[in-house]
Amino acid sequence: MPIGLIALALGGFGIGLTEFVIMGLLPEVAADFAVSEASAGWLISGYALAVVVGALLLTAAVTRFERKPVLAVLMVLFIAGNLVSATAPDYTLMMVGRIIAALAHGAFFGIGAVVAASMVGPTKKAGAIAIMFTGLTAANVLGVPFGTMLGQAAGWRSTFWAIAGIGVLALAGILALVPKTGAAETAPGGLRGELKAFRSGQVWLSIFVTILGYGGMFGAFTYIAFTLTEVSGFSAATVPWLLILFGVGLFIGNTVGGKAADRNVDRTLLVVLAALVVVLVVFALTAASQPMTIASMVLLGGFGFATVPGLQMRVMKYADAAPTLASGANIGAFNVGNALGAWLGGVTITAGLGYTAPIWAGAITTLLGSGVMAFAAGAARRGRNDDAGLAVPDAVGPDAVELQRL
């Protein structure tokens, strides 16, 4: 394993921590700034929207530059955003800090995925991407619970100081460990060349699968605390530990999903998305049972995040000659899915359908994603059989670029 992947994973850990730890600290933040819980919640929504903007615009702005220094600059931006949050005297400046950090989020993962894939051979690219995303899963397993505890014990600002420190370590790791050769050449024509990737129908289909497939899982997860306490009967104090089980599932799913996607991306996504639909349906039907809920939490995290390396790899695969902007766009698609899933789940609760309704909404959304994936996989097979230009072979590399032109 190239040691530079560890630096990318550490950056992913810090970014994942700053995105999710705020959920456990909202009461303290709201009280400190004397704002309502709903207003404090915009610190989460505003972050997600800024991720989408950064994933598209910031990635597009840096396509002409070598990727290693770009990653370093993005990490500096991330550190600055968290320092602003840690020292913010009021709610407005806190929001500014969140937006600054979020702008780095989308571009870092989008460009980082391309760099990670370039460090290894053609048959290990999805696994390399999974290693980078291991930082994000570790942030959920370890970072969020301990970050919440730190913020509750020493004040919420201490958590953001700690995240800034993690960013400094990640920056040092990127500068020292990520090789310059890990950055592939940009597409011919710079930004215009990168935009050509979006002429591929498979790139767009992959992005839609990301929005629907991942959005279904996240929509169910957004309101999971209500399901656990109001339906399953767990105490509020138990929820953080149950979320750790969910995080364990994320870690396992990310690792296994990456290895499976290296063997066959489409088959892996078809199987995992179908399994995720089954898990969501079973969870919705058995949420009143605590043992079944515990099992469902682990499986939801496992199958939900097993999609991530494959989804990211698939976009890069069909944008092989110009993957940077397409990779960033797919990171934005994950966050669009987050917003869509959370909105649908909120609609079902507002409609009085109960706290298992978001899980049903997630199952339906993921089922739609499975349908799009089945259509995309079928089109790719037909394209290969007919020597059409829509599909490229499973291997990713220079040969794939040449075959894509046939």
Notes on the structure:
The longest helix has 30 residues, at 125-154. It is built from 16 helices and no strands. It has 406 residues and is an all-alpha fold. Helix content is 81%, strand content 0%.
Helix content: over 70%
Distance between the termini: 34 Å
Q: Report the mean per-residue pLDDT as an integer.
A: 81
Compute the gyration radius: what is it?
20 Å
Question: What's the helix-strand series?
Answer: HHHHHHHHHHHHHHHH
Largest sheet: none
**How many H/I helical runs?**
16
Record field, number of beta strands: 0
Strand content: under 5%
What is the 3D form?
globular
Protein structure class: mainly alpha
Spans where pLDDT lies below 50 across 5 or more residues: 182-189, 387-406
Provide a brief overview of the structure:
It contains 16 helices and no strands. It is mostly helical and 406 residues long.
List keywords for this structure.
16 helices; 0% strand; mainly alpha; 406 residues; single chain; disordered C terminus
Element layout with pairings:
Elements: H1 4-20, H2 22-33, H3 37-61, H4 67-87, H5 91-118, H6 125-154, H7 156-177, H8 191-195, H9 201-222, H10 224-231, H11 239-263, H12 265-286, H13 290-318, H14 323-350, H15 357-385, H16 398-404
Helix pairs in contact: 1-5, 1-6, 1-7, 2-3, 2-6, 3-5, 3-14, 4-5, 4-7, 5-6, 5-14, 6-7, 6-11, 6-13, 9-13, 9-14, 9-15, 11-12, 11-13, 12-13, 12-15, 13-14, 14-15
